[in-house]
Amino acid sequence: MFITGLGTAVPPQRHTQRACWDAIRASPQYDALTSRSHAILKKVLTGNNGIDARHLALDPISEAFEFTPDAMHARFKRVAPQIGEEAARRALQESGRKPDEIGALVVATCTGYLCPGLSSYIGERLGLPRNTQLLDLVGLGCGAAVPTLRTASALLGESEHVLAVCLEVCSAAVYLDDDPGVLISACLFGDGAAAVVGSRKPQPGVRQVRMTRAESLHLPEAREKLRFDHRHGLLRNILAPDVPVLSAGVAADVLARADIAPAEISEWLFHSGGRDVLREIVQRIGLSEHAVRHSTEVLREYGNMSSPSCLFSLRRALDENAPGGKWWLASFGAGFSSHGALLEVR
């Protein structure tokens, strides 16, 4: 599959980590938390955690403390189609394709649920033909990007062009209580969307990006390390302390399963799961800090956006006109799962 168009989008509201800390301290929920929770929030939001700011669909930021299921669902339903459409239109524009040329739309998300799925809403907003195949992928968490691209690639057997979208409204799935995993999630995650036009043939006159190989690994015995639970009508992120080490291990295993030596890769595009995650990957695979610069900068500017994050890194590498060759796109998350795709870039 040739990636002939790639678009990204975030809500316009940008909130610095310091502003988030100030807002939390001023919230009525803050006094209900323990002193240990206060210390965790302060450390993550005011320390050097690799994130400067996040785009969150909160205006004003005090909306973050509306923790009712109805408020969270309404936020997802309002924001998800908007940012999904915006990213998709940018991908279509770059690819030179019109909506009526798209044979299938695949949308992945884990931060909200709609029936019919987001593909119905985004397809309508884009003006896709009524006979377009619409598919929704759920439950893949932060690792959804590569499986979504693989699904799009499979659909090219029936269509010349396929549109794939990964989007998350994490502000509709984070809140505060005294669980460390819940608190850290509230400090790390941001909202964002990325869309890819996949085509059978390359787009003339633009850089060629071809996905030639992909690999996945699933560890159900580690499922409890990272997953969503439902409590009191809300999505609750379960986040174990050893997730960074686990992420690095499975990322290295997927690379080995694909029979690719690190020396073959000229650009690395990892899911920006967090500062500690990227540090562990660097150590485990034997990379330099410079090698993961795209992922590091995405984390700094946007936080952990879950499924679209590694596609933001790909967008950044292309915008910087990074040297061609073999690029490795890697996503990992709930399951515990890890995925990698080899991109040949000219």
Please describe what this structure looks like.
It is built from 10 helices and 13 strands. It is globular and about 60 Å long. The strands form 4 sheets. The chain has a 5-stranded mixed β-sheet, with helices on both faces. It has a 4-stranded mixed β-sheet with strand order 8-13-12-11, sandwiched between helices. By secondary structure, the protein is α/β, with parallel strands linked by helices.
Structural class: alpha/beta
Secondary structure tally: strands: 13
As residue ranges, the low-confidence spans are: none
Rounded to an integer in angstroms, the radius of gyration calculated over CA atoms is: 19 Å
Going by CATH, what is the homologous superfamily of the largest domain? Answer: Thiolase/Chalcone synthase
Topology:
Blueprint: E1 2-9, E2 14-16, H1 17-26, H2 35-46, E3 53-55, H3 69-95, E4 104-109, H4 118-126, E5 133-138, H5 145-155, E6 161-168, H6 180-188, E7 192-199, E8 209-218, E9 226-231, E10 234-239, H7 243-257, E11 265-270, H8 275-285, H9 293-302, H10 309-319, E12 325-333, E13 337-345
Parallel strand pairs: 4-5, 4-6, 11-12
Antiparallel strand pairs: 1-7, 2-3, 6-7, 8-13, 9-10, 12-13
Structural key phrases:
346 residues; alpha/beta; Peroxisomal Thiolase, Chain A, domain 1; five-stranded mixed β-sheet; four-stranded mixed β-sheet
Task: Please summarize what this structure is.
The protein is 36% helix and 25% strand. The chain is an alpha/beta fold.
